[in-house]
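One thing: could you explain this record?
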Amino acid sequence: MSDRAFRANPLRRYLLGVALGVVVPAIALAWLLSSFVLMRISSNIVHAGSSEVTSHVAGLLQQSGLATDMTGEAIVVNEPARGAADAWGHFGALAQRNPNTVAVRAYDKDGRIVFATNPGLVGMQPTPDAKLSAALTGKRGTRFAASLFGSPSRSYATFIPLKTVAGVPAGVLEVVQDLGALRGELEVARWIITLGVLGISLAFLALLIPLLRRLALRSFIDPLTNLPNHAYLEAAAKHVFDRHGRSGRSVAVVLLDIDRFKAINDTLGRRHGDRMLVELAKRLKGQLRLGDYIARLGGDEFALVLPGASEGTAYAVVERLADAMKRPFRATGRGVHLDASIGVALFPRDGIDLHSLLQRAEKAMYRAKSLRLPMRFYRHGSDSRASHSIYLESDLREALGSGGLEQHYQAICRLLTGEVVAVEALARWQHPTLGRVPTHEFIALAEATGLAKSLDDWALAVAIRELARWSRSGSNVGMAVNLSAQSVSDPELPTRVRRLLEASQAPANQLILEITERSALEDYESSAGILTQLEALGVRIALDDFGTGHSSLSTLDRLPISSLKIDASFVRGIGRRNKDEHLIRALVEFSRGIDMPLVAEGIESEAQRSWLLAAGVEYGQGFLLAQVATAAQALSASSAGTLGGHDHQSVNESTEVPPDVN
């Protein structure tokens, strides 16, 4: 995924919201706090100043002969020895020498101005305000400090009550001070405080943003693989769909699911499973185009959004993803192969939002699993097939628990004589309403839904019970049972097989467990240990579909394998493809070199049998040699040494249900 794509809108919007949520409230809080603090500071300054002014003015009045003393917060006045006008004039001259004094006014007890530094005011009786009225009536003291920030005023008035010697109110003296300089200083202080708080907020935000980013990334990023998660993909996909919806271009949504990953986790342990997921995430991310998105949805599921991708483009990207998975993943010192099933849906053809597109990609993915294909595109009409699979899975579970399945048998014979040396147990399901369900269909369904091990347990129990019954009747024919990859990697498998053998008294050396190359090598160390325990019980191990997996001959030589089965696809190529014939000859040489019997599967013509005999293959299986039979038919025919050749019905059965599929 590109850096540009990684910086998509969700995270940016989140961090911007947090930044605004921190800075804006911090500025507002700083402004309110500074206003409150400075109001208290200015009030204290002015109050202190007013007391000082009161004392100073009382002294000036004494010098002018207008006052004799000061009692509390009031000035005691007397009749001046000289004329009142001269006394007040002398006082005014003294008062104006005070640099903080702007104006002085004296009121008599009726509120009439008897003195003012502005002579035009003398004799006026202004409308009394609350402060003046309180001072005249003696109900308030001299301190009437107003907030410098509650009013645009740059001055402050101190009202000094005047009383006679007998304490009778004689009037009020008003001294107005210019506090402009103080107000300016306090305004500067407020800005300094505000900017300081803002600076602290920004510094805090600078420390907070990386933490917030990490927290935000936790909500958008998968912690194991460091890929985006479902929440991030959903937000990014909405942006992509909006843009491409306007331009009319398609977008591919890809869902990738790792096959049998639970078995790998159970066998190797979660730690090794997590390592493989991390490595897989790196490989997948490395195959994307610029602008593509990838996310881990959880567990072993990954989703991709490919902007502007048609079916052809999506197919090319998926091919690159599949190629990246071909190299073995290292776990416990050995290479482990991972396979994936992939479903693809297209915007806007299959849906217009991520939820519906992922649903349809999932249906396509499960369709790919059921068909054993690496990928499928969603097709309209497949919903009904998906519903069919859901109901069929439920019916299969019920059939496993209620005896709704049957086991039939097909002979493995000597090609030269037709002698039956073993039979292979094959599951059959006669559905009560659908009729016979093709074996490959319900086997694939069991593997896709986690029922494969339950199906194996049922097949083992029935086959071992039949083997014991046949052995008691004197038959020495072997019984071959196919096992899925889920069972081969199950550490409890040897214990279950031992208990079944002991309970039925079946001969262990006549039980043959067939496994595929892929299941044997998927987790080599674990599989080798499990197979060795089975061999110790006396059970024989056959390698099925030989030649179709990823095995190396040296690796197979170290597994406790007792026989090899050539895949039917090579047998079908006899007489038609030289490559298949050369490969069969090479397998014959290999089996001779390690002294291991070779069985050819899917023999349906005399020409194939003759060619295989000439090439040195000793054993074979197929409808030319023996048809599929019930348990009673198989026991009767094996006692006679043959299960008979094919007829018209058996050929049709071969076409419908491949004999090499359990």
About this structure: Residues 1-9, 140-152, 643-662 have pLDDT under 50 and may be disordered. The chain has three domains: 27-186, 230-380, 392-656.
